[in-house]
Amino acid sequence: MLDKKRIAPRVGIVLGATVLFTYLLMVMGTFVTSTGSGLACPDWPLCYGTVVPPLELAIWFEWSHRLLGGITSSLILVSTFVVWRYYKGLPRVFTSLMLSLLVVGVLLGGITVLIEAPLLSTFAHVAIISSHLIIATLVLICLLFTLRYVLLSKGKAKGTVTGAKGTRGYFRLLFGAVYLQVVLGIVVRYSGATLACPDVPLCGGKIIPDFSSYMVALHFTHRVSAVLILILAAALLYRAVKEGSGARSFAIALTLILFQATFGILIVVTQMFLPVIILHAATGFMLLGFLAYQSVPEFFRLKLNGEQERSVETS
Fold it and tell me: What digits encode the pLDDT tens for the residues 6-48?
């Protein structure tokens, strides 16, 4: 019988590395699309028919993104193998879903290049490009769910399970709200609605805009939901401090939300200054990942407590 307390840290290292590379890939993807380099390599999976494309900046932005994607995909495959080797139950479900999403994501990436998605009609462009990044967020969530579950099964975070009961599902609530906001932000970004409201804090000089186009409606909805999430996070932090449970984690979440909101405002103020766009995306993905990790005991508490994790197989 393999000792899960000995195996879990090793599996955790593999999963942690995969989480890191997935996060970097998502940030790099934001950089590539923001610099207009998404079609710098006109073919797929090669670039100009070779693995060493011409030495042009835009081309190497896109090619570096593909290389990073290749490394990340390999790590996801290794993570899936390791988890299936040593664990049963939910970890296998998470990694199977993750692997399926990876296949769809890779195919969408190829389709984006081969049919020149950024040059398609507005609806097709938004659907394909947004779906690609939304799938990446789901892969990140599956990875973090698996990582937290593995660490909990080791027994290292048993106190966290007790604390999660004290938070009464609040992390799960905040995670759901932030995920919907991230998806909405992705749609806003790739529908070209980022500057649909060109001023802050008003929108077109009005508290409530005219909604003259769907882009204004998307942008304004994104702003309103950001304010609601900020209020929700502040209220949850206040309650956590009052109840003495989870205050530190909620404080981290609120801090990330404040940074995210600040970068969102600066995107409009600076008229989409590239470093601000990257920081906005990077903070948003970090916030989403943090909340996904924190919400695992709340989502799967019964599984963790009732099945004794059924985690490590005999060799």
Answer: 788 889 999 999 999 999 999 998 999 888 887 788 777 788 8
Tell me what pLDDT residue 126 has: 73
Give CA angle at 186 (272, 58), nearest 5°.
Answer: 55
CA distance 94 to 144: 9
Q: Rounded to an integer, what distance in angstroms lies between the CA atom of residue 283 and that of residue 279?
A: 6
User: Tokens 């409009």 belong to which residue?
Assistant: 268
Closest C-alpha to 103, from 78, 84, 77, 81: 77
Task: Mean pLDDT check: name the lowest of 148-157, 210-219, 238-247.
Answer: 148-157
pLDDT of residue 224: 96
Place of tokens 């980022």: 194
Contact 123, 154 (CB under 8 A): no
Between CA 220 and CA 216 the distance in angstroms is 6
Contact (Cβ atoms closer than 8 angstroms) between residue 216 and residue 210: yes
Residue 279 CB contacts under 8 Å (≥ 6 apart), including other chains:
263
Residue whose C-alpha is closest to residue 4's, from 194, 181, 177, 151: 151
**Sign of CA pseudo-dihedral 293, 294, 296, 299:** negative
How would residue 157 be classed by pLDDT, with cut points 50, 70 and 90?
very low
Cβ atoms 4, 26 nearer than 8 A? no
Q: How many residues does the chain have?
A: 315
158 has a pLDDT exceeding 60: no
Statement: residue 181 has pLDDT above 90:
yes
